[in-house]
Write a structure and sequence with these properties.
The protein is mostly helical. Helix content is 75%, strand content 0%. It is built from 3 helices and no strands. Helix 1 packs antiparallel against helix 2.
Length: 161
Amino acid sequence: MAVDDKIDIEQRTAILRRFRELLLQQRTKFEHYLEVIDHEKADIESGDIDKLIAHVELEEQVVSEIFTFQKVIDPLESLYHAAYTASADGQAPEQGELPELKRSLEDLRGEVLKRNAENRHLLKKRMEAVRSEIAGLRMPMKARRSVYAEAGEAAIIDVQG
């Protein structure tokens, strides 16, 4: 085996390892995101606005991290495929755990989207209930009349004074 072949194999192995590592980290982020969504659902159902706000802020951080990982994963995946296409056999090792990792990530994405849609629907229903509750409230001062309303209106004005 030539030295160039050995270096090429080491580079492909390093790319494969890094790609796998990033996919695992992203899967962990998606799992964390699902936990946050579950907490949000509980907050919506309980009506705890302060906790809901905290979980929404946490959700924004997790989504930002997921997008950051995706920005790194996309070029690395292209590099991974290019490295194996340029190799002698031209075959990327699609057996093993890499395709399973990608499938599990897709499943997690689908689950995140589904639960997120459920939470949006639940939040929309909750907001409608609060709006109707607010509309049903009466203003206590609205029905009262002024203390001067019973005094009557002036008919004659004394301008000489």
